[in-house]
Amino acid sequence: MKNALAFITKAVLTGLLVIVPIYLAILVLLKGMKTVGKLVQPFAQLLPEWFPAEQALSLLLVLIICFLIGVAVRTRLGRGIRERIEKGFFAKIPGYALFRSLTQRVAGDTRQNETVWKPALAEIEDALVPAFIIEEFEDGRYTVFVPSIPTPFAGAVYILDRKRVHPLDVPFTEALKVASRWGSGAKDLVAAMERGDTSSR
Length: 201
Fold this sequence. Notes:
Helix content is about 55%, strand content about 15%. It has about 200 residues and is α+β, with helices and mostly antiparallel strands.
């Protein structure tokens, strides 16, 4: 009974970790469309009545604003402003830093520290498990995140000696797929580890 309850609880929490970010993104998008709705009304009246012009133009305007903000934060000035806002507000939100790091990796942003969320295979007990390097200690130890199966947005954190962690030269998304596909493709991660061990000799 306890095992069943623990399984159900973990499954619900894992599902929430997937659904909540999607829900919030949709909520923000709809709120943005409602906010800019009045701005596009004059232009919407120029289009045919059968066409949902106000909704379409509102969506287009919100997407353009998102695009411009995305371009702006890639500049030096934009990065400075973004960092100040994040440190002053968003960094205080529990889990924000972790979620931001993960989404950056999924989006292919390589400007952040290359050791953050770097794919690896970790030795835990007598097994090799797919993992991601979160940070490196001054003494060489690693903090690693071991994702759960099949939803990699939840899991466990370990602090391991350097010799028990094998960084992999593979794309972040490839390692993420192994966790989301019940381990299918793990042989490619092992092959990458063996290639790395051979080249380091």
